[in-house]
Amino acid sequence: MDYIEKGKELRRDIIKMLHIAKSGHPGGSLSELEILIALYYEVMNIDPKNPTKEDRDLFVLSKGHACPGLYAVLADVGYFPKDDLWTLRKAESKLQGHPDSHKTLGIDVNSGSLGQGASVAVGLAIGAKRKGLGQKVYCLLGDGECQEGLVWEAAMAASHYKLDNLTFILDNNGLQIDGRNDEVMSLLNIKDKFSAFGFKTFEVDGHNVSEIVKALKENVYNQPKFILAHTVKGKGISFMENNVGWHGKAPNDEEYELAMKELM
Amino acid sequence: MSKAIRVAYGETLAKLGHENDKIVVLDADLSGATQTKFFKKEFPDRFYNIGIAEENLMGVAAGLAYQGFIPFASTFAVFGTGRAFEIIRNQIAYVNLNVKLALTHSGISVGEDGGSHQSIEDIALMRSLPNMTIVVPCDAIETEKAVRAAANFAGPVYLRLARPAVDDVTSDNTEFKIGKANVLKDGNDACIIACGLMVGKALDAAKKLSESGIDTAVINMHTIKPLDKETILKYNSKCKVIVTAEEHTIIGGLGSAVAETIAGTNGTKFAMVGIEDKFGHSGNPDKLFEEYGLTTDNIIKKVKENL
Fold it and tell me: B64 vs A110: CB contact, 8 Å cut-off?
């Protein structure tokens, strides 16, 4: 598959759904997209026609506010019709402002309150070991999210229980609502931190699908995996890139036209 | 007989492990105190110590519930319901996951550890969450039934389990059904609605009141949510006064739940015995119960004042 073209198509879906919803989070949805493409098109054992199959791999979008990116992917791989995307955040919609496993096919875990997805992912991975069906668990974290203490409680447990079926991926776009991570609350060397917590660490260009896939497919033994994915917040739309103002704001009509033109 | 509610919890859990292989147990470095140690000994590979990390305790329990297991998560009530509140809210109650919050050392009966460890607000916290069921057993016999019922119940359940030994006030034959109050003694003048360690004191109070000519009913309201409103309204119609008794702040607990139920119905007098908007402090539990008015005499006084 041509992932450059796929990336443009899904970015158009993201921008369109946010434009119609008049709210939502474009920056993180655009930065995480290639990570989701790698997972859903190349790596995960899933079947959108049988979305609850027992042995499926599980994905937790711990940075739940970036769900427009995930919704675009889920619709594209066939969990629900693409037209559902245009109902985002509306009262009658299956697509909540933050992921809801009861409402949306393909969403394995509720998220939105930061740090909690990491903890639930540890429980999923322990459960996967107990079930013995070979399920793998993938959890996508935001960099600002790593300021939550619960992430580190979860990380400690992940290595204590030797969860080699669990991968944390960090969408490291460097920005959070109030500004750069470095200004708000420094993460310093985040890879070293996860390494010190017992993870086998990898580092990739978070917009290079084949690099991400390669890291995701690396086997680890008796320890969890951490992938530091360097990304650009607002990736793909020039005026949104690296602009903290686009964390949680929908494009107006003019911005929508400009963005769609760039994504052609 | 007299046995600690938390011990009955630990023993029952270990028995249940043999009957239901979906049950897994999580603790936060307090397995000796919460009594999950019995399960841990019996099923070491189904016991997960999460360390001193109560938020993660609840998050990991949620993950196991998503995978189809029945996790019992145990720590002290003050840390479980307080520190981990928002994880319970968003990952357990909001999702309606099948997690059992079996939290011990509730109330001021924790005693000597003092105010920092005495959860007086946990029922109020859990009551405020949609989908949450709350059960407060009154003795060891009822605890075994409550733990079994929680394991067989689909959805989140908060089991509020007290620390000290308590005399049995129910028997093996007493029926236990989540959401259905037990009328331990009938009466037509006054009605005492109690839960947990206050049920025994309510029975003592009713006995003395009845001896002095005030025919007093006692209801063991072991399930605070969903509340058995039918039984409350029945006694609200026939009795002249209702007094609630709980080892919890009077703000948001059993008393509040009963008040919400009877407000605006008729002229029945109503009073609450509970902790009156104060924190606890270190001391012998019996002495603390005296100081905070959690006594038979105080229940009698509230009944008489309102008749």
Answer: no
